[in-house]
Each structure stands twice: as C-alpha cells, then as structure tokens.
Amino acid sequence: MDSLSLDQARTMLRGVFAKSAELQLKPLACVVLDAGGILIAYERQDGSSNLRFEIARGKAYGALGVGVSSRAIATMANERPVFVQSLIDASNGRVVPAAGGLLVRDASGRVLGAVGVTGDTSDNDERCAAAGIEAAGLLTDPVPNA
Amino acid sequence: MDSLSLDQARTMLRGVFAKSAELQLKPLACVVLDAGGILIAYERQDGSSNLRFEIARGKAYGALGVGVSSRAIATMANERPVFVQSLIDASNGRVVPAAGGLLVRDASGRVLGAVGVTGDTSDNDERCAAAGIEAAGLLTDPVPNA
Amino acid sequence: MDSLSLDQARTMLRGVFAKSAELQLKPLACVVLDAGGILIAYERQDGSSNLRFEIARGKAYGALGVGVSSRAIATMANERPVFVQSLIDASNGRVVPAAGGLLVRDASGRVLGAVGVTGDTSDNDERCAAAGIEAAGLLTDPVPNA
Amino acid sequence: MDSLSLDQARTMLRGVFAKSAELQLKPLACVVLDAGGILIAYERQDGSSNLRFEIARGKAYGALGVGVSSRAIATMANERPVFVQSLIDASNGRVVPAAGGLLVRDASGRVLGAVGVTGDTSDNDERCAAAGIEAAGLLTDPVPNA
C-alpha cells in the first residue's frame, strides 16, 4: 500500500463521527493527512468553533512530525516546554500538543498518514481518532490508558 | 436572525462604554466580530494605548476560535501553556488569552459573533463586554464570578 | 437558512466530483468554506499534487474576501497586479487569483459561503465548482463564458 | 489639536455613510487611523465582503506611510510596481495601493490621521472618504479629478 486513498480517508471520517455519535460528544472536526503531512480530507460537524481545522491538523501534523501520538507530544510539552515550543515555531505554528492525533500504520508498521480530531475532551477526541483508523482496517500505536 | 448587523454592533459598543462610564474605568477599546471572526465595528476611547485593537480582537477571536470565553482560555493558559501558545501560533498571533472576550448568542444558543474589550482590568473589561451584549438584547455564556 | 451545513458541503463535493468524472478531468481538490471563510469540508482526489488545498482554499477565500468570483480576481490581477498582490499579502497569502472559486448564495442573494476547486484547467475547475453548487440547490453569480 | 478624537472619527464615519447613501453605493467599510497609523474606529455596513477591513486600513495606512493619498500610491504602482511592492512587504502587507485613502489635516496642514474607504469603485470610495473628512470640519489634500 502506497498511501492513504481518499476512500480510506472517508471511511476514517465516518468511523470518527460514528464513535462520536455513540459517545454523544460535542461537534467534532477531523483531518486525515497523508504520510507527507498533506491534507487528504477534512470535515467539521455543524456547531464547531472556528479554530478546529488548525487544531485538528496540528494534532495530526505533530504526530507525523515526530513519529508519536499527539498525546505523547502533550506529555513532552509538560516536561520540556521550550523544546515543544521550538517544534511549534519550526513548523510555523503547525504543531498542536494535545491528545487526539494518531499515526496511521499498515500491518507492517509503515506510517501511511495521521488522523487528528478535536471538539470534545482530548481523551474523547483520541478515542474517536482510534475508532476511525480501526474502521478503515488500519492500525495505530497502542494508546495509553487515557 | 442571520448575523450581527452593524446596528447591533453599535448598540453593543454603546453598552460597553456606558458601563465603563458608570464604573469610571480607564479608556476602553472594543471590537465586535461576526461569527466567522470578521470585524464589524471597533472603537477606542481617547487615551487608549497602541495595541488595544490587537488585544480586543484577540480576546474575541480566541473566544470564537475555541467556543468559550477568553477567560476560559486564560485559565487554560495557566494549566496548559504550550497548548495555548500553539493556538496563538496557529492563528498567526490572533488569540489573546485574557478575560474580556465573550461569545454572543441568540436565544437558541447559536453563536452570532463575539465582543472583545480591553483597557482596564480583565475583570472590568469582561463586565463591560457583558453589558454590551445585554444592551443589544443578546446572550452570552454565564460569566463565572470574576 | 443559517449557514452552510456539513451535509450541504458534502453534497457540493459530490457534485464537483461527479462533474469532473463526466468531463474526465484530472484529479481535483475542493474546499467548501462558510461565509466567514472557515473551512467546513475538503477532499482531494488520489493523485493530486501537494499545494492543492492551499490553491482551492485561496480561490474560495478570495471570492469571499472581495465579494466576486476568483475569475474576476484573476482578471483584476492582470489589470492591477500590485493591488491584487496587496490583497494576497494583506491576507497572509490566502488569496489565489485564478478561476475556480465561486460564491454560494441563497435565493435571496445572501452569501452563505464559497466553493474552491483546483486540479484541471481553471475553466474546468470553475465548471465543477458551479456543478457542485447546483447539486446542493444553491446559487452562484452568473459565470461569464469561460 | 493633538490627535483625532473618537468623536471626530465617529463624525467622519457618519459623513462617509451619508455620502454613500446619497450616491446609492454598495455596502462600504471605513477606517479612521490616527497620525501614528493606530486604529481609532472602524465600521462595515451589512453585506460587506470579508477583506474590507484589511483593504480600508491598507488605503489609510499607505497614505500615512508615504504622506500622499492612496490614489497617488496606485499611480505609483503602475509606474514603479516593484517599489510599491517593496512598501507592501516592508509594512507586512499593510499597504493597499488603490484610491479611497486620504490624509486628514488641520488648518495648519499638519497630518492628524487618515481615512480609508472600500466597497464600491475606488473613485466612489474616495468621494466618500473626502465627505467624511469634510463632515468633521477637517481638510485633506486636493483630490485630482477622478
């Protein structure tokens, strides 16, 4: 498999919103990026606030940027705030350190892209991102207990 | 109601400055943004310092950006400083995390725009923003005790 | 009608890609923005190049920025290049002067948002944008013969 | 007289919109800047497009920047495009070379600020800006026949 297709991205978006409906969360926004960090698809549910695209993308972009989930970058931001700030600056403000951004991997472990979700708590955002990846039959790294 | 009109924005500005006169505050500056974060009206009272527009807009823009008052963003900035910094950077410096920015809602709860006030203490700024919204017969979220 | 919904945006995306399939065009990318210029939805077809999101958004954002189609901004760019460059700079590079961005209006003429399409010739991009708007039962300004 | 007051700025805004109503123009947006280029007041009429603040400010800011009307800067942009582009870049995109921005002077010729208007043709925008300055009993430089 070379890269995430638009069809796979749509499947992930449907999976994200299905999980959100099940959990009765606030309106969510979700991006799917390819392995190069390029946007494949984005949707925001009605009632979302205005910076949701930037936040969703920032979670996914950061995950691809350093090869971990955005939850791990949030933890890093507590421990080494100036380092994470340097990543934010180096990426022209494209990294957002909060849970909800997950790498997408194939069965061999290769990174195919990332999903970023925002709108509810970071823990719930991450749950939905994981559900989206699962809906597409793809994998992410094990998510620590949130 | 479709969107905040210029007439409504003027009414809010008058309400902000009337409250400020009543409380005998320092010179204030006030923006009214529509739901998309676009500027409808701005006024600064004589004697205001030079970054007041950027501060007033940053409070209102941030409120619209994440769907809460700018007071809530200020609280978030204490708890998760790098995350809030990432919002500032993702918005090209358009988010200012300090009380004084309030969402404007209609009776059904829909967000119509935001008001941002600066010039006195953040608590007093917020009081005036709330007075402006009330003067226009519109609603904001409950303001925690300042 | 308050604002473009996600459902309406999806209908427009489907309409854009249906027209593209009918005309056998190259891979397209399409954004739908709300009236404030905020992203509601985006999809790029497989095989799209890397700046397609920025181009699609820039067409739609420019249309909302000055209240005309991005074709009109492209014409303006020929006649008054430095003026259009100043709009690009004033918007932090968010205006792209090329056909393919169309305002979305309701029956009363009110602007509800904009669609931006890129990937084939500008004329074909614009045809697809118009088809997307029509698919959602909405209106745009008359498109000059391309 | 030290600087434009908020009262004077409001009088200019009223004068701009009164002239616009008389001429039956499209919705206008208008800024008033003080001599340092700092925003005193802004209003946009209902139905304005989204970049109107940036355009109105860019006309007034440019006028203050080089000490002439923005019409003169537009002429300069035709004759020396790279020079005017360098002004745009040097000001971080804050100069917009199009008629509609006028210096505000007192009787002694001292610059007190500037008015910038946008929304209709540049010529009509400039007519309204001049009417606003006149309404406040202040002066601008002679406007060439538009």
UniProtKB/TrEMBL annotation, chains A, B, C, D:
In terms of InterPro entries, this protein maps to: GlcG_carb_metab_protein, PduO/GlcC-like, PduO/GlcC-like_sf
Q: Which top-level group of life is the source organism from?
A: Bacteria
Q: What is this protein called?
A: GlcG protein
Q: Species name for this entry? A: Roseiterribacter gracilis
Lineage start? Bacteria, Pseudomonadati, Pseudomonadota, Alphaproteobacteria, Rhodospirillales
